[in-house]
Design brief:
The protein is globular. It contains 14 helices and twelve strands. Helices cover about 35% and strands about 15% of the residues.
Length: about 375
């Protein structure tokens, strides 16, 4: 697929006040929330880095569990020493990009579509992707009484989180590969694509107003808990069953001014992912505890258990899949051939990985010169 072009009007992504790119977990809505309860004081006597405080942003979402767990367990603060970490949570990709542009956050966890959109809209001047965080966790869940096979999706009403968001683009691409036609913006055609906020998708499913949904976790598992059936796991459509669902981004200004802080956050991320993968049950409980603090409600076992298993936590940004996702958006008519050259700067991450004795990762030719 071709390179990509500005998510132009991705009226889609720009309009999005709630790129739930994920979850209930997504947080929903478009506001950000300073998570002051997690603003940890630096350890007394600890060496301060080049800035007093680093502001990070993420979604209260399982696919952002690296950030949830890293903050919850103090793993980021440990690497930052005397520099305080201040977390903020967001309900939508666009609001997080706005916060990054305004300097309200310095580093963020975010999905591929808003990262691409933010980069292309600024002509490549506002952000860099500096690492990966998660892969997978997206499924097509349907009403088994109405849809028994993939071909039965034709003519049905299927929800996606939002026009132009990562799951919406993936579903539109899958529809095209079936030889069916759908107008990307209206969602009308051989399949009715119904853009529905993840927080209300389960209720829409229960009411019968949708027949299924192409959604991230834990929304997918919430639908299964309501009697839905997983008809397709998106990971099966990708090489090695891996595709980027969450990246780590940084403002270019902050990256240039405070490389030591960026490196410390990345070191915290790498060590958090290592801890998550070595202690999956403890990590799941930690993420759920963080979600409870942020939303007032933890996820029940019949939702978080299957949802957690479907997400992989890794340091590799899976750059080739980001480029493919951009190409899918181009093909759907939601993106205008943006040049993604320079969207990645993986030198700080590779420095951390090398020091930890881990394999370095590639940028698929989309790195800074």
């Amino acid at each position: 697929m071709s390179a990509a072009r500005p998510l132009t009007a991705l009226r889609t992504i720009a309009v999005i006040a709630a790129l739930p790119l994920l979850l209930t977990a997504c947080g929903y809505g478009s506001k950000s929330t300073d998570d002051d309860s997690k603003k940890t004081a630096a350890a007394a006597g600890a060496k301060k880095l080049s800035v007093d405080e680093v502001k990070i942003g993420y979604f209260p979402n399982l696919t952002h569990a690296t950030a949830l767990v890293g903050v919850q367990e103090g793993l980021f603060q440990k690497e930052l020493g005397g520099t305080t970490i201040k977390p903020s949570t967001f309900n939508a990709g666009p609001s997080e990009i706005e916060a990054l542009n305004a300097g309200s956050i310095d580093i963020g966890w975010i999905g591929p579509s808003p990262a691409i959109n933010g980069y292309t809209k600024s002509d490549g001047k506002n952000l860099r992707i500096i690492g990966g965080s998660a892969s997978g966790g997206v499924k097509l869940v349907v009403n088994p009484k109405k849809i028994k096979s993939l071909k039965d999706v034709k003519g049905k009403k299927i929800a996606t989180p939002q026009l132009g968001n990562t799951q919406d683009v993936a579903f539109l691409n899958w529809i095209a590969e079936q030889g069916w036609k759908v107008d990307a913006e209206s969602g009308k055609g051989d399949v009715s694509v119904v853009r529905t906020d993840n927080k209300i998708t389960p209720d829409a499913y229960k009411s019968g107003s949708i027949d299924g949904a192409w959604v991230p976790e834990p929304t997918a598992s919430k639908l299964v808990a309501e009697g839905g059936k997983v008809l397709l796991d998106e990971s099966t459509l990708w090489p090695d069953k891996k595709f980027v669902i969450t990246n780590i981004i940084v403002s270019q200004k902050f990256l240039k001014a405070h490389p030591d802080v960026v490196e410390a956050v990345l070191r915290g991320s790498v060590k958090t992912n290592e801890w998550i993968n070595a202690n999956p049950d403890k990590a799941k409980a930690s993420a759920n505890a963080a979600l409870k603090e942020l939303s007032g409600k933890e996820l029940p076992a019949d939702v978080i258990d299957p949802a957690w298993k479907s997400v992989s936590f890794l340091d590799d940004p899976l750059a080739s899949t980001l480029n493919t996702e951009a190409e899918h958006a181009v093909k759907a008519g939601l993106l205008e051939n943006p040049s993604l050259k320079g969207i990645y700067d993986l030198a700080p991450l590779n420095k951390v990985l090398k020091a930890e004795g881990k394999d370095e990762v590639g940028d698929a030719g989309l790195g800074v010169k």
